[in-house]
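Team,

Forwarding the record for the chain on the shared tracking sheet. I've put the sequence and predicted structure together so nobody has to dig through attachments.
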Amino acid sequence: MLKRICLFFMALFIISSSVLFSKLNDDINISLKEKQVQELSQDGLTLVFYVDITNSSSKTYYLSGYSYRFLVDQKEYIRLKTPLEQGIKIEALSNTLIALPVKITYDLLFNAISGLRQIKIGQCYIMGEMAFSDGRRNKGQLSFAFTGEFPIYKALGIELRALKSNTLTIGGADLDLVAKIRNPNGFEIWADNISYEIMFGGHLIKAGRITEDMEIGEGGEKEISISLLLNFFDVGRDVYAILQQDSVNCNFGGKLELRTAWGRLTVPFELQKKVPIIKTN
């Protein structure tokens, strides 16, 4: 007899749950509005899923919590469960936009999932459930699943190529410092602001900025030439002797401000190299 009573209540619970879910499924629809890559840097990024919750009923609901798994290359990177004590109000006959941000740190990602360092674009998948209430009682959960992608940023390569000596006199010099920027990424990059400082043998030669909008294609490279008009009375007479040699100890440091299809990022750089001097006259 007791067993029959237990079975009866279990069946009643299953039926009630099914009715609640069916009603919730009729009233609430979850869809993806857009995806955005934000806070792109050398260390990682944030991938934000903007989710539209449509309440087509005449009743007010509350989003009381959500949970999700975030997979990259079909392997789990993050599992998260977030209760919302106050709840997010989902007004009747309206749309409510919420954001699901996923913080991706490259080092953690590479340690968690092998083989990602070599790929260009990360393919990802977010799947989970959202729980809803009427403000007092739980009304059930609805599942969601969305796909996405994000860039695997690789550091740009910067190389000092040569120092071209066009004119060298006891009073000054006309020089061109030639450098090359290589883009190992699987997407285009535009360098639209490069601030720099150049030193020869410990002497400050020039601090400046390049504001030319330079496109560096996927896997491509770009050569830059920085004109240096020197007055040895200003930079130091020792520089004249330095420039009479076959090479010069050059410090080249600064900051690259980059634009990508995924957003902007700023990359500092610091190079120290013995650069060959090429006489062009």
